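sry for the spam today, last one i promise. struct tokens for design, 326 residues
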């Protein structure tokens, strides 16, 4: 099938141990990966593993994509901009905002090219099932990004049916934005889970790019994206989600998770951390603790979220071990 290869040409990265899983005094497993920490002045201050190897930021690249849409004229701000840079949970407040962005651009949910999906989180999915609801494009966690992309296309008079084509003017702007902020060329372009182009950069480049946005002067599009995320963390993720919790409890910090074990964090002083957990961290239990530990090593106060620095392992309903950073 097109887009599939049996043997990738890229070499296996030399990932290192980042967190251990200890049950009843026995090391049951290890999460491997890489982590980079940039100091307030932008210098590498913490690095473990292949931080210069290309990787896919996945949804951690959404702030860049939202910035490209804003630069292209998408008329979004506040919660609309936050959800464009976010991976929302599919709550009613999220679907309502996405629907509004589309309507304001003269478009409808049928114009979205992301897949139909259920809300994130069992509670919201169960509520939808009880109400007789079904999977919907509006509920897909990337629909806010897609709506902003469509709004930018409408503002520019660009075609909307093919807005996910890597050769589309909007996606060309996304690529230019990523390369500009990350300070390196895109190493590879793939198709993300939502259907949008996904562009590989190094973990260090990802940190460099988010730091540039976090420190951008007030009044710039870069600063607008970060300000929207900080002011409206419930639209970047949702209730019970790590990004929302970190941004609420560490004011001034921006947090964005990406699939396959990625998270990027930047505080108001410019300290920035990017993490890649090589096994994908499917239960989202390792990347936040690794990232917050690195942020603490750089001098940031992460005590308000100290409970995220380890995860209890249960046996018979009682704690019998923990997942903790190495």
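last one done:
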């Amino acid at each position: 099938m097109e887009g599939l290869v049996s043997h990738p040409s890229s070499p296996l990265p030399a990932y290192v141990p980042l967190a251990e899983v200890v049950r009843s005094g026995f090391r049951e497993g290890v999460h491997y990966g890489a982590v980079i920490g940039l100091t307030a002045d932008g210098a590498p201050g913490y690095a473990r593993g292949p931080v210069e190897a290309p990787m896919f930021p996945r949804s951690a690249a959404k702030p860049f994509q939202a910035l490209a849409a804003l630069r292209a004229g998408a008329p979004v701000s506040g919660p609309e901009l936050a959800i464009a840079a976010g991976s929302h949970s599919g709550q009613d407040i999220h679907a309502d905002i996405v629907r509004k962005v589309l309507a304001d651009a003269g478009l409808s949910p049928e114009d979205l090219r992301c897949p139909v999906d259920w809300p994130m989180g069992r509670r919201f999915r169960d509520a939808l099932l009880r109400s007789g609801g079904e999977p919907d494009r509006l509920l897909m966690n990337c629909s806010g990004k897609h709506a902003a992309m469509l709004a930018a296309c409408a503002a520019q008079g660009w075609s909307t049916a093919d807005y996910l084509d890597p050769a589309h003017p909007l996606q060309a702007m996304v690529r230019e934005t990523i390369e500009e902020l990350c300070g390196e060329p895109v190493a590879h372009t793939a198709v993300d889970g939502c259907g949008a182009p996904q562009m590989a950069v190094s973990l260090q480049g990802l940190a460099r790019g988010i730091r540039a946005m976090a420190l951008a002067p007030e009044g710039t599009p870069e600063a607008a994206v970060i300000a929207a995320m900080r002011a409206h963390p419930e639209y970047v993720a949702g209730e019970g989600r790590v990004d929302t919790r970190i941004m609420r409890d560490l004011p001034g910090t921006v947090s964005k998770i990406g699939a396959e074990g990625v998270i990027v964090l930047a505080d108001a002083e410019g300290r920035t951390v990017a993490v890649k957990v090589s096994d994908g961290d499917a239960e989202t239990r390792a990347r936040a603790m690794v990232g917050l530990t690195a942020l603490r090593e750089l001098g940031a106060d992460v005590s308000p979220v100290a409970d995220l620095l380890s995860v209890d392992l249960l046996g018979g309903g009682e704690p019998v071990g923990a997942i903790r950073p190495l």
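The longest strand covers residues 26-38. ok im logging off now
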